[in-house]
Q: What sequence folds into this?
């Protein structure tokens, strides 16, 4: 998940985004992640992740719990947003699969 690239001056061109972190939680099989685990996924420092997570917690996107003297577990309270294309495809599929109330009654044999 490390998609960070550097520009000609050696600076990172990608930033640690809320959506990226939310996607990491979504992709994980674990109940929670730690800042060092997320930092490893993105190739950034633990402190960069901790700062972003604290900001996200203040915004109500994640929650945390102290799990020991130095360990903090983090989990998402919201799902990552769909891309515009994925949202369009989901709406299209929903329209294609929509069944009217009358059709449902007919299918269930309740039309009489």
A:
């Amino acid at each position: 998940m490390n998609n960070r690239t550097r520009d000609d001056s050696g600076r990172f061109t990608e930033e640690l985004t809320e959506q990226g972190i939310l996607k990491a939680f979504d992709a994980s099989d674990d109940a929670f992640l730690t800042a060092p685990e997320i930092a490893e996924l993105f190739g950034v420092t633990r402190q960069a992740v901790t700062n972003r997570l604290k900001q996200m917690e203040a915004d109500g996107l994640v929650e945390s719990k102290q799990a020991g003297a130095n360990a903090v577990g983090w989990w998402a309270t919201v799902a990552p947003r769909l891309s515009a294309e994925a949202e369009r495809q989901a709406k299209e599929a929903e329209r294609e699969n929509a069944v009217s109330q009358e059709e449902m009654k007919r299918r269930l044999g309740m039309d009489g």
